Please model this.
Amino acid sequence: MVERRPFLTFLSHAVLIMGILIVSLPVWLALVASTHGETAFTGGTIPMLPGGEGWRNYSTMLGKGISTSGAPPLAAMMLNSLIMALGIAFGKIAISILSAFAIVYFRFPLRQLAFWTIFITLMLPVEVRILPTFKVVADLGLLNSYAGLTIPLIASATATFLFRQVFMTIPNELMEAARMDGAGPWRFFKDILVPLSRTNMAALFVILFIYGWNQYIWPLLITTDARFYTIVAAIKRMADVADALPQWNFVMAAVILAMVPPVVVVIGMQRLFVKGLIETEK
Amino acid sequence: MTRSTFNHRLLPWVLLAPQLAVTAVFFLWPAGQAFWQSFLRQDPFGLKTTFVGLGNYAALLADPYYRSALWVTAEFSVATAALSLGTGLILALALERTLRMQRWYTTLLVWPYAVAPAISGVLWWFLFNPSIGILPWLLKGLGYHWDHGLKSGDAMVLVVIAASWKQVSYNFLFFVAGLSAIPASLYEAAAIDSAGPVRRFFTITLPLLAPTGFFLVVVNLVYTMFDTFAVIDATTKGGPGQSTTILVYKVYQDGFVGLNLGSSAAQSVILMGIVVLLTVIQFRVVERKVEY
Model:
C-alpha cells in the first residue's frame, strides 16, 4: 500500500468479511441443522440458530449409523477414510521420492523413457479412464479391499516432479563430499536427501492427505461391502434417503464429520499447506 | 551443469520399480484398453465383438446427446472458472490493501479447499433444496420459484455455484502469491507520478498478474472438466434431462449405467486428448512464467 485511502481500506475489509460470510454460510447452516431434532425440518424452512440435539445426533451417527439409509456407524467409515488417506499420502511420497532419486542421481539406459512414462500419469485423471481401470482392479481381485482403495491412486507424476525439483537444487558438492567419505547411494539418500527434503515431504503430505480423504468416485465404485465404505463416498447414499425422509440432522452431522479432518489439517498446517499447494502446481 | 552420479546398472531400476509397476498396471494398461476398445463394438448381449474402426467416434459426433454434453461442459467450465477466478481475484486484491488481520482473513478463506467436492455438492444441494432450503425460500420472497429438479437453468446455476465455492480459495491463494511478487517500488513510482489506484491497477497489477491469471485459467479448466464429477453426482446427477451432464459424467453414465463400452471408451480417448492438450498448454505457460 502506497498511500492512505481510508475509504478503500474500509472497502477492502468489508469485501473480505462479506467473502468470509458467504463462504461460511453453507457450513454454518449444516452445523445448525446437525444440532436439531428431525421435527425441525418439517416446518418449511431450516432453522438458522443451533438447537440442543447436537450431542444425540453426533453420537448416534458415530456409534450406530442410520440403518434405514444403509449407513454403518460413521466412526468405522472415518477410520476407512483415514486408512485410505494415509495410505495414499505415504505411498505416493515413498514411491515418488525413490523414483526421483533414481532419475536425478543415476545415468542409465532408457532414463528418458522412464521419466516420460511417469509423466504420462499426470495427464490421465482417474475419472477419464474409470471403466478400464475398474476392470483391471476387478480382475486383480482388489474390489472391497484397502489395497484396491489406495494402490491405483498412488502413482503420481506431480510428487515425482516436486522431489526432482528439490534434488536439483541440492549442490553437487554435497554429493561429491559424501562419495569422498565413502557413502554409497543408499547412505547418501538416507542421511542427506531425506533430511534435506523433510519440509517438502510435510507440505506434500498435507496436499495428499486431503486428496486421499476426499476421493469420491473411486471408493464409490470399488466398495460394495459396507465394511470398506469411506465417509465421503457414503454421504451421498445417506443424502438421497434424507430427501425422502426428514433426516437432515443426521446427514448434516455426517457432512460435518466428513469435513472436519481435512479442514483441521489445512488450518493447523496452513503454512505447509500453502507451500505444498503452490509447489506441486509448478 | 553436469550432475555427478552414482554408477549402478541395477539400482535405479529397483528404485523406479514400484512407481513404474503402478503406472503400468493402473494407468498405461487401462488407457491402452480404452484405446483398443474404442475401435470395437459389442452386440447387446456381449457375445460378439466386431472391429468398427472409427465407427464409435463417428457415432459420437453424430449423437445429439454427446454434442449437448460438449456444449454443457463448455458452459459449465467457463461459468465456473469465471466465477471462481473473479471472486478469488477480488478477495486477493482486498487482502493486499489490508495491513492488519491478513493471517486471519487468509485462514478463514482457504479452508474450503479441504472440503471434498462431493461434500460441497451436498452442502449446496441442502441450501437449494426446493422444499426446505433457505435460498429457494428467499427467492420465493422475490417472486422466483426455484426448482433445480425441473428447471435446467436452475440446475446449472446450482452446479456452477457448488463447483466454484471450493475453487475460490485455491485461486485466492495463487493471486495473493502473484500480487505479493509485484515489487512495491513500481506502485510507489506510479503514485509519485500521480497515478491513482484505478490507473495503477490497470497499468501495473493487471499486466504483471497476467501470467498467474493465465496459468490459473488452465488449471481451473482442468478442474471443472474432470474434478467436478462428484459435484455433479451429488447434486443433479446430470439432470434434469441432460442439462448438467458434462463429458466426464457421460463417460461414467454410458460405461457403468448404460454399459455401452465402445462408446464410453471412445469418449475416454477424446477426454484424454483434451487433458493432454491442456497439460501441454499448462507447461508452455509455466515455461513462459519462468522466463518472466
User: Anything to note?
Assistant: Chain A has 14 helices and no strands. Chain A touches chain B through 105 residues (CB under 8 Å). Residues 35 and 56 of chain A are 8 Å apart (CA to CA).
